[in-house]
């Protein structure tokens, strides 16, 4: 989705500029325009996140592409960046957790379910694995969120993003590794917790 100025607002704003007596009208137009932009932002997020959490990879890819286009539009204006940052304080609109719960989920979440879950009354939800394209797109969306919204790096830290991204670097292909390096830089930028080295447990050396 692309965020554009309302056609009706441009005409009113130009008229307001010609007359200092219409300050109240100008403020009203500005307020209405801000409300319209915020509605478009929340709508774009809800639509993109709905697809990004889908069971099938092709739907998640579509959602990630829409989110990436949306973030590029947001980056064009300080006002839209501010509105996007405000939207990320609402749990159901937060992008980073959805990325790690779906497209960037670890292999542990893809393990075969036990017999107890197979024989339950509830139907078993089967989610298709993430494709190379999906992972690369999710990493680009992660990069954009962290660059536009500093608190997204905190979300990433809580979700152990460094460990997940290091696993992608060691196990995925060239397409994902290139996007992964850019995402690593974005989540470590101005983020002390993400800059801390990951502790790796050392096994005791064998006795002679």
Distinctive features:
single chain, 208 residues, mainly alpha, Leucine-rich Repeat Variant, 11 helices, disordered C terminus, Cell_div_Cdc14, ARM-type_fold
Mind explaining what this structure looks like?
With 208 residues, the protein is mainly α. It has a single domain (28-106, 129-195), classed as Leucine-rich Repeat Variant, CATH 1.25.10.10. The protein has helices at residues 7-18, 23-52, 57-74, 78-87, 95-101, 115-118, 132-148, 151-158, 161-171, 174-188, 192-195. Helix 1 packs antiparallel against helix 2, helix 2 (23-52) packs antiparallel against helix 3 and helix 9 (161-171) packs antiparallel against helix 10. The longest helix has 30 residues, at 23-52. The chain starts with 6 loop residues before the first helix and ends in a 13-residue tail after the last helix. Mean pLDDT is 81; it is low at 107-113 and 199-208.
